[in-house]
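Notes, p. 3: input format for complexes.
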Amino acid sequence: HSLTNRLPAALDNGEFFIEYQPLVALGDGTVRGAEALVRWLHPVHGVLGPDQFIPLAEGTGLIVPLGRWVLEEAARQARLWRDAGTCREPMRVNVNLSPSQLRYPSLVADTVAVLEDAGLDPSALCLEVTENALIGADERELRPLRQLADMGVDIALDDFGTGYSNLSYLRRLPVSTLKLDRSFTRGMQSAPADPVDVKIVEGIVSLAHTLDLSVTVEGVETGIQAAHLRMLGCDTAQGWYYARPGPPDRLCALSLVDA
Ligand code: G
Ligand code: G
Ligand code: MN
Ligand code: NA
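Output follows (259 residues plus sodium ion):
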């Protein structure tokens, strides 16, 4: 695959860049942070999304240096936002971790080093791990995540609800946030809301709060949807209704408006 072959040079040449999508507190509408979403400005094909190259990077192991670059860059950006007073504290940056990164022996040490270099508190970082990456993980495999969680890094379960998991496993995971997959919130885009979707979200929120987990909803595209989700007790939202992923300076403009 020609894209695969070009990945290492692309990393060396600085062809990757990050867009940030704000995370908004449903309670008061303030920006609380942003998710870092990597893109590749390919010299021939133009901007490529992560779905087009993350699986290739995962397959070749390049995901480890690429993922570390994303983490470094996002941490540096979070420090700039903090210094500029961009968001109300506590402000966070969310970074996606792929399964190979989870298994990489120096994940904890690398993450600690990145946070120290950026002068960032661990609580300013949220690592997103997909439900499918954790299904079946035993205690030994979970240890690095648990160490990071114990240091104060927030761990979020991404695409929650799309894996075939036993819900009782939630109690064993070192996670503090559930990111509810957007398939559950699609039925609330317009009024009246889909009553089954409402019941499902209600149930998940109740379970999450019982376990002291915070709930973030993805794919919020309309104000009606945001209102439903706020009423259902969801804590944080992300989606086109608030903002599409964009350059880091856009986040500053957004949070100045809402403050
Ligand atoms: O907005 P978007 O098309 O960028 O995101 C598509 C998918 O790519 C999402 O599921 C997201 O989790 C994943 N993704 C985005 N950035 C990264 C990254 O830096 N690392 C990994 N592993 N996945 C990412
Ligand atoms: O990590 P994750 O799969 O959650 O990444 C978020 C993905 O969802 C990205 O591809 C992002 O561009 C996309 N996205 C973000 N907000 C919305 C939205 O409101 N609607 C839809 N359809 N997609 C969204
Ligand atoms: Mn994500
Ligand atoms: Na997701």
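Residues 21, 37, 96, 158-159, 182, 218-221, 239-240, 245 surround guanosine-5'-monophosphate (ligand 2) (CB under 6 Å).
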